Amino acid sequence: MITTNKREKKDLEFVLCDIENHVAVVTINRPPVNPLNTKVFKELLHLFGQLDEDEDVRAIVLTGSGEKAFVAGADINEMSGLDLVGIHKMNKVSRNVFTQIENVTKPVIAAINGLALGGGFELALACDLRICSERAKFAFPEVGLGIIPGGGGTQRLQKIVGQGIAKELLYFGDMFDAARAHELHIVNKVVPADEVLAAAKEWAAKLAQKPPIALQMLKVAVNAGSNTDMETGLTIENTCFGNAFSTEDRKEGLTAFVEKRKPVYTGR
Question: From the record, what ranges are coiled-coil (predicted)?
Fold first, then answer.
C-alpha cells in the first residue's frame, strides 16, 4: 500500500515540484505561457537528476502553470539576442534536458493543459505518456521564423506519426487540435480542461504501485530497442527481462499471484 508522504523540492525559481504518494508533480511556472529559457532548462536538468535518484519517487507528472499553456515554446526574447555560439549553448542544454526526461528511470506523464508549441511540443514528446486538455493546441511553428526545431522534434515526432505526417506538420507549421493529436497517437488521452492534471496523477498513481525495476526495464527495452534493428532489440529485451526476473519484486509478484492477494513492491 502506498502511504502519504508529502514534500516539496525547493530552491528553484521557475520550476515547482511536489511529491506525494510516490508521485512527483513538476510544474513549469512562467505564466502566462511558460516559455523555456536557459534558466528553466537548467532547473529541469537539475530537478530530474534529483528525481531520478530519489527512491521515494516512482512516477513523474510534468505540466505547466495556469490554463493557457503547457509550454508555448522557447523564450524568443532570449533567442533573438543570441549569436550562433550562444544558440548552440542554449540548444545543447535543451537537448540534454529532453534526453534526460526521455531516459529518466521513472515513467513521465505530460499533463498538457494548453498550448504545446515548438520547444513545448518537443518537451511533451520526450515524455513517456501524454494526456491533454480538449482545448490543447499543438504546432511546430519554427519554419515560419526561419528556423527549425532543435530539441529533437524532427526525430521524436516521426517515430510516433511516421515520416510523411511528420514532414507535413513540420513543413507547414500549422496549429492542430487535441482531437487530431489523439488521432495521430501524439497523445494517449484527451480529457476535459479541468481534469487534465487529475487524470495524469491518476495514471501516475497506478504506475507508482507497479514494480519500479520492471517499469525501468520496460522503458529501457522500448527506448533502446526503437533505435536499433530487430535482432539487437530482442537482445536488449532479453537482458532487461533477466534484470527484472532477478529482483525481489519478481518473487513478490509471483507469490502474490499464487496466494491471490495484491502484491506490495519495494523496488528491490
Answer: none
